[in-house]
Amino acid sequence: MNIENLTLCEKIVSPSYIRQGSQARRGHEQLIRHLLDQGKCPEEGWSESTVELFLNELAVMDSNNFLGNCGVGEREGRVASSLVARRHYRLIHGIGRSGDIAAVQPKAAGSSLLNKLTNSVVLDILKISGVRSVASCFVVPMATGMSLTLCFLTLRHRRPKARYIIWPRIDQKSCFKSMITAGFEPVVVENVLVGDELRTDLETVQRKIQELGAENVLCVHSTTSCFAPRVPDRLEELATMCAKYDIPHIVNNAYGVQSSKCMHLIQQGARVGRIDAFVQSLDKNFMVPVGGAIIAGFDESFVQEISKMYP
């Protein structure tokens, strides 16, 4: 409540009680103010009441919740079921615009603000998790495989002659299909057995680059988190190789945010060589429902280019 309404409340209930309630609410508002000011992940998690207060404050900023509003335009948030509306805290519009997922939606100031804050907080989390030099990221409503496809499709505009993606093998279908769906031919590099671990065959990767011609290779598609006995790819060496041959490098970091080792490998790879983007799943790392991912990178302009590719 604003100060005028609180003053009116004091005419109905004892002013001392109203002041206590006002102070309690101010505690919630201070947390929200800190988030708006810093755009970083809170050191201590919010209570559900603070989260719900904030979401409701944002929701009333969207035009579908304006009092007396009747949306009849092409881009209106309309939901038939009140159950569905409540489930989404009446944030009905969605985010972005048809040309850019990162753009502000004019009729949804609250949803747009929530999106900007989400990307800012997630960027902070990636830095805290070990990738200190990450420059930009954004959340997409797609699982990891489709998010990788989006990265490959963006690279197509930069490397129109490229047909191949060099991929150290991992036995998981979605990352394999992500390359085929984007229209490229995966060049599968078998791993080598080192002790009781399967590791990246760097010699074969380099030989494939030389055989195919660097200009015909869209990127190297490496992996951090995977199933035993395979260990994370040798990101530092691959990143150095990509820098040497001027080939993009996309990292499948599906499970990796929760692993300091995986995040360290990405940071080191970017430091010594080239990593253009790395993709991680929301459900695996943040324990939310399946169907979201984070696309991040070290060149802000390239990450923005990917976001503008989102249809």
Automatic annotation (TrEMBL):
UniProt cross-references to InterPro entries, sorted A to Z: PyrdxlP-dep_Trfase (IPR015424), PyrdxlP-dep_Trfase_major (IPR015421), Sec-tRNA_Se_transferase (IPR019872), SepSecS/SepCysS (IPR008829)
Instruction: Read off the lineage from the record.
Output: Eukaryota, Metazoa, Chordata, Craniata, Vertebrata
The organism sits in which domain of life?
A: Eukaryota
Its Enzyme Commission number(s) read: 2.9.1.2
Regarding protein family, the annotation reads: Belongs to the SepSecS family.
Q: Which NCBIfam families match?
A: selenium_SpcS
Job of this protein: Converts O-phosphoseryl-tRNA(Sec) to selenocysteinyl-tRNA(Sec) required for selenoprotein biosynthesis.
The name under which this protein is listed is O-phosphoseryl-tRNA(Sec) selenium transferase
Give the UniProt keywords, A-Z.
Protein biosynthesis, Pyridoxal phosphate, RNA-binding, Selenium, Transferase, tRNA-binding
Chemical reaction(s) catalysed:
O-phospho-L-seryl-tRNA(Sec) + selenophosphate + H2O = L-selenocysteinyl-tRNA(Sec) + 2 phosphate
Cofactor(s) for this UniProt protein? pyridoxal 5'-phosphate
Question: Part of which pathway?
Answer: Aminoacyl-tRNA biosynthesis; selenocysteinyl-tRNA(Sec) biosynthesis; selenocysteinyl-tRNA(Sec) from L-seryl-tRNA(Sec) (archaeal/eukaryal route): step 2/2
The record's subunit annotation is:
Homotetramer formed by a catalytic dimer and a non-catalytic dimer serving as a binding platform that orients tRNASec for catalysis. Each tetramer binds the CCA ends of two tRNAs which point to the active sites of the catalytic dimer.
